[in-house]
Amino acid sequence: MRPLITAMLALGLCAPCAFAQMPATERATLAKWPSWTAPQKPVRVHGNTWFVGPRGLSVLLITAPGGNVLIDGGVPGDAPLIEANIRSLGVDLHDIKWILNTHAHFDHAGDIARLAHDTGAQVIVSAADAPLLARGGLGDPQYGDDFPFAPVVASRTVRDGETLHLGDLQLTAHVTPGHTKGNTTWTWTSCEDQRCLHLVDIGSLSAPDYQLLGNARYPDIVADFEHSFALVAALPCDIALNPHPEAVDFWARVDRRGQGHADALVDTAGCRRYAQAAQKSFEAQLAKERATAAAKAAGS
Ligand SMILES: [Zn+2]
To answer: What's the rounded Cα separation, in Å, for the pair 38 and 42?
Structure first.
């Protein structure tokens, strides 16, 4: 049995085994956020864009005759749930040609290895996040080795502003660093009844308990965040999405739409509002860190 488990683990194929081998930090975080593994029926966002993740983490499916695209892969163990959702839409797993990633943290890249194995899709990420993805999250500038996942070597990397073409689909990568060095915001257009909207999956701009000053593993982090706030605020944006759906009130909006407000997901200020809120809490955190550093310097 043991060699089998080892082989399955190597392929990222055994959720219970992976769970047993997780560090306590990762198990505790999963216990704190049950929605990250909670089943959720697929929801159409707009046109060919679907939410196919667990309730608490965005995994997006964009369909097209020339091949389908998936963005993000949940936490370790989410792949069966995501795959069941994809199949329930009548989509063959093997018709998923690309898996894109917003950033190489265990809650968005956690089961990409298995999804890539099961679909045969190419994994495409920003050049700056590819090393963290290939290390399975180890050596993260903020989290160290606390949140590992099955490593993935990207098939291809993209640079800031690059547009990818798959049949009729076009997706543009906007590198919005800070949360990770290669954190990426993906944009594309989806049409429904000839109404075409700008969809934006905003790469996380949060800095939860981050060390922003004097972080030798990421010296440019403050400048990178500031760049990303401005970039996201300026994007053409009709529907703002985020790897954490609650960050853009996704479920509240879906509920409102279900109550007859057809345009509840449409909000041209959504990206700007998200960026401004993230910037405000970032600056408060930075001011606190600066005050602590100054107090320490005065006391020494
Ligand atoms: Zn993250």
So the answer is: 12
Q: Which of 206, 260, 266 is nearest to 240 (CA)?
A: 266
Measured at the CA of 246, the angle between CA 209 and CA 172, to 5 degrees, comes to 90
Largest CA distance in the chain: 66
Q: What are the Cα distances from residue 182, in Å, to 14, 104, 158, 188, 231?
A: 28, 8, 10, 19, 14
Rg (CA), the chain: 19
- pLDDT tens digit string along 207-254? 999 999 999 999 999 999 999 999 999 999 999 999 999 999 999 999
Number of folded domains in the chain? 1
Whether 107 is catalytic is yes
Q: Which amino acid is at 61?
A: L
Tell me the C-alpha distance between 238 and 258, whole Å: 19
Cα of 179 vs centre of ligand 1, distance in Å, is 6
The predicted-structure confidence for 186-202, as pLDDT tens digits, reads as follows: 999 999 999 999 999 99
- The yes-or-no answer on residue 46 being catalytic is no
Q: Which domain holds residue 92?
A: 2-299
In this structure, are residues 207 and 164 in contact, taking their beta carbons and an 8 Å threshold?
Answer: no
The CATH number of residue 290's host domain is 3.60.15.10
Q: Helices 270-299 and 221-233 meet at what angle, rounded to 10? A: 160
Report residue 92 as tokens: 């063959």
For residue 27, the tally of other CB atoms under 10 A from its CB is 13
Residue-level pLDDT at 9: 45
218 is catalytic: no
Q: Length of the chain in residues, anyone?
A: 300
* Ligand 1 center from residue 100 Cα (angstroms): 15
What's the rounded Cα separation, in Å, for the pair 195 and 190? 8
Tokens standing for residue 121: 């899709």
